TrEMBL record:
GO terms for cellular component: cytosol. GO terms for molecular function: RNA binding. It comes from the Bacteria. HAMAP family: NusB. Keywords: RNA-binding, Transcription, Transcription antitermination, Transcription regulation. This is Transcription antitermination protein NusB. GO terms for biological process: DNA-templated transcription termination; transcription antitermination. The keyword Thylakoid does not apply.
Length: 153
């Protein structure tokens, strides 16, 4: 089985799998504070990473912690609570999505929001996906205004 890399166009399914593993890895980093390189190595060893966009997984896993402060500042105005009161799952998902909004302009904002909502449905609390959707919808208005207002085709 071939692994997806940056040398070929990754399928939406390969990106979805990368996000799914990335949110789990980010959760592990947030809760346990483990070394990112160690977390990545464990995920690559312990999981079936075939048909996963590994470059995307690595970009998110290392990019989110590197940009954590800036990412939190981007979505904090749209929260109804302090960041330290967020559930670790919702926080990992919001950080991942904020990272994609800011640094992965190759991913349409609607895809970023939809994927985050699906992650929240899978890993979050009962209505966590609604909260994630509301926060990211407002974040998109700020981060992706050009894309939102752009020509529709």
């Amino acid at each position: 089985m071939s692994r997806i890399s940056g040398t070929q166009k990754a399928s939406p399914a390969a990106r979805r799998k990368a996000r799914r593993f990335a949110v789990q890895a980010l959760y592990q980093w947030q809760v346990g504070g483990a070394n990112l390189t160690q977390i990545e190595a464990e995920f690559r060893t312990d999981n079936d990473m075939s048909n996963v966009d590994l470059e995307y997984f690595s970009d998110i896993l290392h990019g989110v912690p590197r940009e954590k402060g800036r990412l939190d500042e981007k979505f904090a105005p749209f929260l109804d609570r302090r960041i330290d009161e967020m559930t670790p799952v919702e926080l990992a998902i919001l950080r991942l999505a904020a990272y994609e909004m800011a640094h992965r302009l190759d991913v349409p904002y609607k895809v970023v929001i939809n994927e985050a909502v699906e992650l929240a449905k899978t890993f979050g609390a009962t209505d966590g996906h609604k909260y994630v959707n509301g926060v990211l919808d407002r974040l998109a208005q700020r981060e992706r205004m050009v894309e939102i207002k752009g020509p529709r085709g």
